[in-house]
Design brief:
Its main location: nucleus. It is built from 17 helices and 10 strands. β5 and β6 form a beta hairpin. It has helices at about 10-35, 55-105, 110-120, 125-135, 155-165, 185-195, 235-250, 265-270, 315-320, 330-340, 345-355, 360-370, 385-395, 415-425, 430-440, 465-515, 520-535, and strands spanning about 140-145, 170-175, 200, 250-255, 290-295, 300, 305-310, 400, 450-455, 460-465. About 30% of the residues are buried. By secondary structure, the protein is an alpha/beta fold. α2 packs antiparallel against α16 (about 465-515). It is elongated, with a radius of gyration of 33 Å. It is about 50% helix and about 5% strand. It starts with 11 loop residues before the first helix and ends in a 25-residue tail after the last helix. Among the domains are: about 120-205 and about 225-310 and about 405-445 and about 460-465, P-loop containing nucleotide triphosphate hydrolases (Rossmann fold); about 315-400, Conserved Hypothetical Protein Ylqf, Chain: A, domain 2, CATH 1.10.1580.10. The strands form 3 sheets. Strands 3-2-1-4-6-5 form a 6-stranded mixed sheet, sandwiched between helices.
Length: about 550
């Protein structure tokens, strides 16, 4: 039989006896402390009412106290950053050690692994190869543009490849996500783009709850996920493609191309009326060419995303490149978030995210992480995760922002007047104009005040040829290795900066201790020395330099004589 555990219950007599002993012990400790002469800390007497310039003294003392608090907060954030850097470097070292061990064991199969990686389905070389297949097999190419930044979604290499290709290939522009921009801005972009290529206004279907559509009063009994939500512009585009097929007197193949997250697969689902292609918020969901039959005369080819050239601006790479949120480095994600915030109105961003004023991108991400509860162990804001969320917001259908078209019409050099006229041949432009008008009138749009004003970075260069992609891959590897070396240098420099900050804090406490009313001359000389020392330190974002007059502020740690 198992023995039962001893009970922890006590008799009342024993419990009261223990409590009495504790009280006696506390009394004894207080008595000894009294004998040793431990005194209570003196209260701050404050500034007497009869003192001259009382308000100025109080104001200066409050400013000094506030600066010290800001300094402590700055040091706390810096310690957190260094802790994160140290943790990441340790993780990288462990990863390299395990990698070296694995390479030592599998040195023979290293070359095979490299070739398999290049031929893998998720590799960027494979994306270029599949995209080239779609362009060559298509009679009509639909370049999908995000209505919030149409110019940034245009790829000059793709347009030039279609225009200069053999055969009578046509290029159509599809302006998707039109429900996320103001109506006036949409009409401006349609008038600008239709002068270069035939342009279709489109609102693709999504499986999310759409706020721009009127919701049914009755609750549906069953929701079929294979059926998509309401969409606009599909009838106009279908009619345009069918009429173009009749002019050719043969079945046509339509390729759908564009940068990540512009809605290529969603447009195909809208045209088909059923969820034929996989869609998602993550970039690069479509890995290879997919064929969808619309009718007997029309086939649609879904393609992987265009690979953005690394020579593009930081903004273009943040919004248009295929970023794997799990494998991408924190530096790339933070650089992308910084580029987005620099190209839009600060006041509108503060209103959209309900965040107070911020000085830089890091402070904005810290405030946003605290607001959304994205914290690590110890309450440290998860900057990397919130930066990835910000990028997903701006590439997905969550944030309403708009950019203005160029003031003057300047077509690219590869698009001459003859080629522009050739691109419009075979399409009924009158039907297209009427279809766009009905689509624009059928939707609800955000007001210009609620939509964030965004400054576009212009056309985004892409890589279409597979050979160029392989050349760029070696450049990316060299960039990554150089970045790792820079991070290690930054870590060593940050240790030196921390020592400087600690010295500055000690100097500030010395300055405040010497600020007494009876010793004005000595305090002025010391403050001048302190100013010279503080000028050398660049780690602080604000200066604590004080003149001799400012240093005469009342110190609350001393008695007023």
């Amino acid at each position: 039989a198992e023995l039962k555990k001893a009970s922890k219950r006590l008799t009342c007599h024993k419990r009261y006896k223990i409590q009495k002993k504790i009280r006696e012990h506390h009394r004894k400790v207080r008595k000894e402390a009294k004998k040793r002469g431990r005194k209570k800390p003196k209260k701050d007497p404050g500034v007497p009412s009869a003192a001259p310039f009382k308000e100025e003294l109080l104001r200066e003392a409050e400013q000094r106290k506030q600066k010290l608090e800001e300094l402590k907060q700055k040091q706390k954030l810096q310690r957190q950053k260094e802790h994160e850097k140290r943790r990441k470097l340790e993780a990288k070292k462990n990863a390299t050690k395990t990698k070296e061990k694995a390479e030592g064991k599998e040195s023979s199969g290293k070359s095979k692994a490299k070739t398999n990686k290049l031929l893998g389905k998720n590799s960027k070389e494979s994306f270029c190869r599949e995209l080239r297949k779609v362009i060559e097999a298509s009679d009509v190419v639909l370049e999908v543009l995000d209505a919030r930044d149409p110019m940034g979604c245009r790829c000059p290499q793709l347009e030039q490849a279609v225009i200069c290709s053999r055969g009578d290939k046509k290029l159509l522009l599809v302006l998707n996500k039109i429900d996320l921009v103001p109506k006036e801005n949409l009409e401006k972009w349609l008038n600008y783009l239709k002068k270069e290529f035939p342009t279709v206004a489109f609102k693709s279907a999504t499986l999310m709850k759409d706020r721009t559509m009127e919701q049914p009063t009755k609750r549906p009994a069953h929701v079929d996920l294979s059926r998509t939500t309401e969409y606009f512009g599909s009838k106009c585009l279908l009619k345009l493609l069918q009429e173009h097929g009749r002019t050719r007197n043969k079945p046509i193949q339509v390729g759908v191309v564009g940068f990540p997250n512009v809605g290529k697969s969603s447009i195909i689902n809208s045209l088909k009326g059923v969820r034929a292609c996989n869609v998602g918020l993550t970039r690069g969901v479509t890995k290879s060419m997919q064929i969808v039959h619309l009718d007997k005369q029309t086939k649609i080819l879904d393609s992987p995303s265009i690979i953005a050239d690394p020579s593009n601006s930081a903004l273009a790479l943040a919004l248009r490149s295929i970023i794997d949120t799990e494998e991408s480095g924190s530096a790339d994600v933070l650089e992308g978030a910084n580029a987005i915030l620099n190209y839009c109105s600060k006041q509108q961003v503060m209103m959209r995210y309900c965040i107070p004023d911020f000085r830089n991108t890091e402070e904005f991400l810290t405030l946003l992480a605290q607001k959304r509860g994205m914290l690590k162990k110890g309450g440290v804001p998860n900057i990397d995760s919130i930066a990835k969320v910000l990028l997903c917001d701006w590439t997905g259908a969550k944030i309403s922002y708009h950019s203005q078209p160029p003031e003057s019409q300047r077509p690219p050099p590869y698009l001459t007047d003859d080629k522009a006229a050739k691109m419009q041949e075979g399409f009924n432009l009158k039907t297209l104009e009427e279809g766009n008008t009905t689509t624009v009138q059928a939707l609800k749009y955000p007001s210009p005040a609620s939509s964030i004003i965004f400054q576009s970075a212009g056309m985004t260069n892409g890589i279409i040829e597979e050979n160029k992609m392989i050349e760029k891959a070696s450049e990316w590897e060299n960039m990554e290795t150089s970045r790792e070396g820079e991070e290690e240098e930054d870590f060593t420099e940050s240790d030196d900066d921390q020592d400087d900050v600690e010295e500055d804090e000690m100097d500030v406490t010395e300055v405040t201790r010497k600020a007494k009313l009876g010793k004005q001359q000595t305090s002025s000389t010391n403050s001048e020395k302190q100013i010279a020392e503080n000028k050398t330190s660049n780690s602080l974002s604000f200066t604590l330099d004080k003149t001799a007059d400012e240093d005469d502020a009342y110190d609350f740690n001393t008695d007023y004589v």
